[in-house]
Task: structure prediction
Amino acid sequence: MMMSALFATIGFAACAQKLDASKVPAAVKAAFAKQYPGAVAGWEKENGKYEVNFKQNGNTMSALYETNGTLAETEMDIKVADLPATVQAYVKEHYKGKTVKEAAKITKADGTVNYEAEVNGKDVIFDANGKFIKEAKD
Result:
């Protein structure tokens, strides 16, 4: 368990760079503080956007903001068992013998929901109904 967490951290760190809160635009910090008052933030910069990792009501979450403070999406870790049945069936069929290591529910700024299943070192993305969208390198 500890090793998989370590590898996940190393893999994640490759695409995002940790950021001191002082380097985060004021508009981004203000938007986060307004939406999640009192949450303790860990900041990263990823593809020109600002990602904040935090806990809310016991849930591990992240939010992605544009430079101007506009929320792009939120992501909440969920139990693998909470993925839609269609997602679980897709993984079973297309990734034979592999297990889902982590799962998340992604909510875009427009309210669109996606599910993410980490399988075999890749993020497999599905729509709200569990229909496959794409596979991305973790």
Summary: Strands lie at 17-19, 42-46, 49-56, 59-65, 71-78, 100-108, 113-119, 122-127, 132-137.
